[in-house]
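Quick one: structure for this chain?
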Amino acid sequence: MRKYIKIHPADKVAVALCPLDKGTEIIIGEERIILSENIPQGHKFALQNMDTREEVIKYGHPIGVTILPVKAGEWVHVHNMKTALGEAGFYVYDRKEEAYPLSERRYFQGYRRVDGKVGVRNDIWIIPTVGCVNGVASVIECRASVLARGSVDAIAAFLHPYGCSQMGGDQENTRQILADLINHPNAGGVLVLGLGCENSNIGELKKYIGYYDKNRVKFLNVQDVENEIEEALTLLEGLIDYASGMKRELIPLRELIVGLKCGGSDGLSGITANPAVGICSDLLIAQGGTSILTEIPEMFGAETILMNRCRSRKLFQKTVTMVNDFKEYFMKHDQVIYENPSPGNKAGGISTLEDKSLGCVQKSGSAPVCGVLSYGEVVKEKGLNLLSAPGNDLVASTALAASGAHVVLFTTGRGTPFASPVPTVKISSNSKLARKKNHWIDFDCGAVIDGADPGTVGSQLFDYVIAVASGEKVKSERMGVRDMAIFKQGVTL
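Got it. Here's what it folds into:
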């Protein structure tokens, strides 16, 4: 088992892959140092002396500056370094792109819908237009669970507190996300459950939904009927009849869309799990498929890496605008841009937002950026896309699903039981978490710490994603956990 790692030749710090005791001799190439204090797993230690205000280099990039003199062998964390991030930035396009030859064609087993779209599940979804009908939706979901048959995977209600007392862009967000989910091909049938008097009522939502298969989508305003539960169950019976006979068929991987997200990260996330996801993403894109990277505030400090992989100057400028708009969003609310990482991140060894962001973007692999999406926008370009959404786990993962992701790959060093509207693959950065929370974690990347080849682990993850897309249920699906959250940006009336 490796005990420590210097990630990039230019790094001034290394990372402990296991707890290291004071007095441990560290040998990296010609560098030989003695640790002057205990170093927790996932945390950094200095490989050289650093003066005050000197850049700390990790992943080959600055992750902040020292606030005190640091000696080789000392622990490097929030007590002796800080972020160097500022406000909205000026960026220069320096294009870097690698060629991606198509590899041997691979397939998954999916559902072809009548509109030509492809789903990886054949669920029946209940989508409330407004939070006022959440309770009714829950009762309907419970009552309808016994009705599932044939190829119907699950019946799920997606509760949220919005749909009324919203204004402007905030209300637009709600309507667009709900419409995106109604149109999502992972649902073989959808019951849209309205109250009748809300701002985002069924009539308004239909303007956002556009064309829909009347056999696949049904609508019910609960104020319009005497017994909304019985009426809903009748409609669900019809939807189940429609969907239950659908069969999986062979689908090329070029039609698979995967969302990329991390949460509860630790100091190992950027070394094990996130790079494995990046390899998986590259393998999918080599098949002609699509991946979507989001959580823009957790790109701050690493955004130029993605900007310089944009396929065109137009995409570069869209990425600059997306990043600066999010910075301005923070400033408009009098919040510091770098109010991150979280307490859990820090406990796991992440010291600054740059440290977190450079680990975060590892999930994007090395493919060129082919698309930049606004919040709620459905993906159109194949290849790697960037999606404007916050770092919050539930909001960002819902946004990925709404933009068309069939599956979300979620890396974590701390663990979380949540799930998004689509299958959410939990990928652990360390084996201790995978053992402790085996009922949460679907795939363990901790083997990289023990010396496993990262490329092999990434390929194994890719194979597992294909199995999930073909019907293998992830842990959260087996537990019956499904969540959604919408980005709240405005006032509540």
